[in-house]
Specification:
The chain is of the alpha/beta class. Helices cover about 50% and strands about 20% of the residues. The structure holds guanosine-5'-monophosphate (2 copies), sodium ion (NA) and manganese (II) ion.
């Protein structure tokens, strides 16, 4: 497999790039931050999506290096935005591998300090299935990240099997409703009932709710009527380069 060999040198050759997808505040319609989503500009294949190369990175022991790069690049970009007068927040996806890294939080602290940013500008997204798979590592990492001042977010909620007792104990601040529920919102009363219940549950536990995969005005309107706190999806913006996001955020202001 050639791609595995190429991925090893992709980091050194700066072929990786972070795209950013805005999250929108439900009440004000203003941008609250952006999720960092990795892309690979392959010299021959062109733009390669993470769905292709993240599994390869996981299989060949490259996911650690990839995760470290994402973290460092997010902090570097946050500093650049601050220098431009833009107070952006960035959400970073963490893999199960990173969650189990002994030095994850030290590494984050080092990146944050070296770029002179505040850890509160970072959100860490961990999928529900990963969070429930290794509850001990999750609980420890979540507590440390929260202590650092970052926001912890449970991603793709609704696709895993959560214990409500455990969910209640997790020091998370945000819950992202999986886009499969959002997609069906305007056609399925079942999806509507599930999303309504999830938002109420999350609010009862003191969590802010983000809906991902919002593609239509009708989905947005339903989510707002259900008191969803933040919205993300193609209806507002697709993931874009940092340069494009800078313009987007300034126009939005
Ligand atoms: O647009 P999208 O194709 O970017 O992302 C596909 C999947 O890849 C999503 O599940 C997303 O969470 C994951 N992903 C994107 N960027 C990163 C990253 O930097 N780290 C990890 N671990 N996963 C990512
Ligand atoms: O698993 P995670 O939630 O991190 O994945 C984010 C993924 O969802 C990325 O691949 C991103 O490109 C994609 N995405 C973001 N907004 C939308 C949307 O409105 N519709 C669809 N179909 N995908 C979206
Ligand atoms: Na995510
Ligand atoms: Mn998600």
């Amino acid at each position: 497999l050639e791609i595995q060999h190429d991925l090893r040198s992709a980091i050194e050759r700066s072929e990786l790039e972070l795209y950013y997808q805005p999250k929108i505040d439900g009440k004000s319609g203003q941008i609250t931050g952006a999720e960092a989503l990795i892309r690979w500009h392959h010299p021959k294949r062109g733009l390669v999506m993470p769905g292709i190369f993240i599994p390869v990175a996981e299989r060949f022991g490259l996911i650690g290096a990839l995760g470290n790069w994402v973290l460092e690049e997010s902090c570097r970009q946050l500093r650049e935005w601050l220098d431009q007068g833009l107070r952006m927040r960035v959400a970073v996806n963490l893999s199960v591998h990173q969650l189990r890294q002994e030095d994850l939080v030290q590494r984050i602290r080092r990146s944050v300090e070296s770029h002179r940013i505040d850890a509160s500008l970072l959100t860490f997204e961990i999928t529900e299935s990963v969070a429930m798979e290794d509850t001990q590592a999750t609980m420890k990492a979540f507590a440390q990240l929260a202590h650092l001042g970052s926001t912890v977010s449970i991603d793709d909620f609704g696709t895993g099997y959560s214990s409500l007792a455990y969910l209640r104990k997790l020091p998370a601040r945000q819950l992202k409703i999986d886009r499969s529920f959002v997609m069906d919102l305007d056609t399925s009363t079942d999806a509507l009932a599930v999303v309504d219940a999830v938002i109420k549950l999350a609010h009862a536990l003191g969590l802010r709710v983000v809906a991902e995969g919002v593609e239509t005005a009708r989905q947005r309107d339903i989510l707002l009527s259900l008191n969803c706190d933040e919205l993300q999806g193609y209806f507002f913006a697709k993931p874009m380069s940092a340069a494009k996001l800078t313009l987007w955020a300034m126009v939005d202001d």
